[in-house]
Amino acid sequence: MKRLLGWLIAGALVACHSSTPLLPRSAPVSTARTVKVLDSFISYREAGTGSPIVFLHGNPTSSHVWRNVIPRLADRSRCLAPDLIGMGSSGKPDLPYRFADHARYLDAWFEAMDLRDVVLVGYDWGGVLALDWARRHPDRVRGVVVFETFLRPMHWSDWPPRGEQLFRALRTPGVGEQQVLEQNEFLALSLANGVKSGLAERDRAVYYAPYPDPASRRPLLQWPREIPIDGEPADVVAVIERYDEWFSRTPAKPTLLLTFGDTGLSAPKLVEWARSTFQALEIVPLGPAGHHAPEDAPEQIASAIRGWLERHAL
User: Fold this and answer.
1) 2-8+42-311 belongs to CATH 3.40.50.300
2) What is the arithmetic mean of pLDDT over 95-102?
3) Catalytic pick among 46, 132, 148, 296
4) Is 291 a catalytic residue?
5) Which of 229, 192, 169, 191 has its CA nearest to residue 64?
6) What value does the mean pLDDT of the chain take?
7) Which listed residue (291, 292, 295, 296) is catalytic?
């Protein structure tokens, strides 16, 4: 395991500065807010006015990942980005932090915010939550944008050997706890391996701040165990199969898939499967970026979303 971790870090570490293009001087600054949901609270950032766009992050990031995307769209839309429960600045109730828990608290946030007529933008688990929410609330969704997410259930044969070894370890009782909860290695690996342009230390600190001790890191461990691989966990497989079936017969719901290169969750076979399965799907290839693509390509992502919104009068 130490050799594996060393390989991942050595292959991914880059300079600790960001090459993100500067925001326009007139770009709106998002405001941090909090709303009570169920037995806890959700923190979120907001900027702009108009029809809402909701941005959903993945593991192990937070709404901070959208900080350079939101200002580029807030001149035309009300942009909101929640921190998923147990993540970012949101509350940390005593939960298993399974997919169903995140979906339940996110549902409560949508209700508390009384959001209607939304466009959903999500990557990683935020993409799964977006596609699932759209299927369950079709009358409240104008369209969906996803990237670097689980478009269909996976198999271990889809993984490169070292990736399979790492994620099998994360899903192994005792081994995953040691790596994620006790040693906090997954957070470092994910940020190093998933951001090609590097992170400024202040941004790295934002991502580390919510996870000061083992108990706080439970969501980071549970997410890898929720990935639908070879039929497990069955309830998450069912969630993805349901939205695959729904989007395959729902031509009236515009959907945008952004791709970054031709590896991982942008692999050509997966993209072609999506093209042939999802109705009303538009695919826009962007330049190479890491898994946490909003860190590497916020300007390109915002421009692609803006163009898609305008083409579909959203």
Assistant:
1) no
2) 98
3) 148
4) yes
5) 191
6) 91
7) 291
User: What is the rounded distance in angstroms from the CA atom of residue 173 to the CA atom of residue 99?
Assistant: 18
Phi, psi dihedrals of residue 5, rounded to the nearest 5°: -65, -40
The residue annotated as part of the active site, out of 124, 226, 295, 296, is: 124
Residue partners of 85: CB distance under 8 A and separation at least 6: 37, 40, 42, 91, 92, 93, 95, 97, 101, 102, 105, 106, 219
DSSP 3-state of 106: helix
Give residue limits of the domains in the chain.
2-8+42-311
124 is catalytic: yes
Q: Count H helices and E strands in the chain, helices first.
A: 12, 8
Q: Which amino acid is at 156?
A: W
Q: Flag whether pLDDT at 3 surpasses 60.
A: no
How big is the CA angle at 54 (ends 276 and 234), to the nearest 5 degrees? 55
In the chain, DSSP assigns E strands to 31-37, 40-47, 52-56, 78-82, 118-123, 141-147, 255-260, 281-286
Is 296 marked active-site? no
Residue 133 CB partners (closer than 8 Å, separation 6+)? 103, 106, 107, 110, 120, 141
Rounded CA separation 190/194 (Å): 5
- Partners of 145 in the beta sheet? 121, 256
User: What does the pLDDT look like over 160-187, one tens digit per residue?
Assistant: 898 899 999 999 999 999 999 999 999 9
Q: How sure is the predictor about 24, in pLDDT bands with cuts at 50, 70 and 90?
A: low
pLDDT in tens, 25-70: 556 667 889 999 999 999 999 999 999 999 999 999 999 999 999 9
User: Would you say the C-alpha torsion 89, 95, 101, 105 has a positive or negative sign?
Assistant: negative
Joined together, the tokens standing for residue 161 give: 């050997």
How far apart CA 294 and CA 267 sit, in angstroms, is 19
pTM value is 0.91
Q: Coil, helix or strand for 3? A: helix
Proportion of the chain above pLDDT 90, given as a percent: 83
